């Protein structure tokens, strides 16, 4: 058992492949790793390990996607003039800010979640925003984040030793205990091949709007907060868009399958 290291393992988690000996240890590992225990249908499987069972699973996954996409295409909101006007309005306003905003069909999870709005009176976006803390396996969703708010202020309730919520602070203690200079904020570069996932590093001292300019956003921004002192497999492009000098080909994002699953998820 990988939880208690005492008893012989009887179960294996379909999600993270951790071995457990009892229901208690199963619950403990789910809590510790924020694991939901549901098999990731989009997880990478190498050619050498690919079996007929994986092929059947992929076939069923594609069938589910096809059914859901067809149901979404028939959804009344897809053909609603008000919905089309709203999406066109948001994309047009984003384009005016030098942001390429892309929206997904109605049936997709990110489309349902997205609460981004634009205030014409203030001429300001209020973004739906997701913060991911990979080192602690934690993520938080924010709604109505004004585009003129700096990233430093956005992160204060989470990683600031003084201003953060005590419960959140305890969960993210590896971040709160680290100097602010070690914190890096990354955002995935969209429209790249899955085997070539790359990230842009954002400037914490600048506003959310300034950081999003010139970027492609699918529904809403997802920011990854990492620490320089801890190893991670997220390849960051340079300011000029060039590949990093070292390990540019060997490194790949361990989070790519999770993100791809979120985008492809339409259940």
TrEMBL record:
Low complexity: compositionally biased ranges: 242-258
GO biological process, one term: maturation of LSU-rRNA from tricistronic rRNA transcript (SSU-rRNA, 5.8S rRNA, LSU-rRNA)
GO cellular component: nucleus; pre-snoRNP complex
Domain HIT-type: 1-35
Coiled-coil intervals, chain numbering: none
Pfam families (UniProt xref): BCD1, zf-HIT
InterPro entries: BCD1 (IPR051639), BCD1_alpha/beta (IPR057721), Znf_HIT (IPR007529)
UniProt KW Ubl conjugation keyword: yes
GO molecular function: zinc ion binding
Region (Disordered): 238-267
Annotated keywords: Isopeptide bond, Metal-binding, Phosphoprotein, Ribosome biogenesis, Ubl conjugation, Zinc, Zinc-finger
The keyword Repeat is assigned to this record: no
Subunit structure: Interacts with FBL, SNU13, NOP58, NUFIP1, RUVBL1, RUVBL2 and TAF9. Interacts (via HIT-type zinc finger) with the RUVBL1/RUVBL2 complex in the presence of ADP.
Job of this protein: Required for box C/D snoRNAs accumulation involved in snoRNA processing, snoRNA transport to the nucleolus and ribosome biogenesis.
Family: Belongs to the BCD1 family.
Protein name, as recorded: Box C/D snoRNA protein 1
Gene name per UniProt: Znhit6
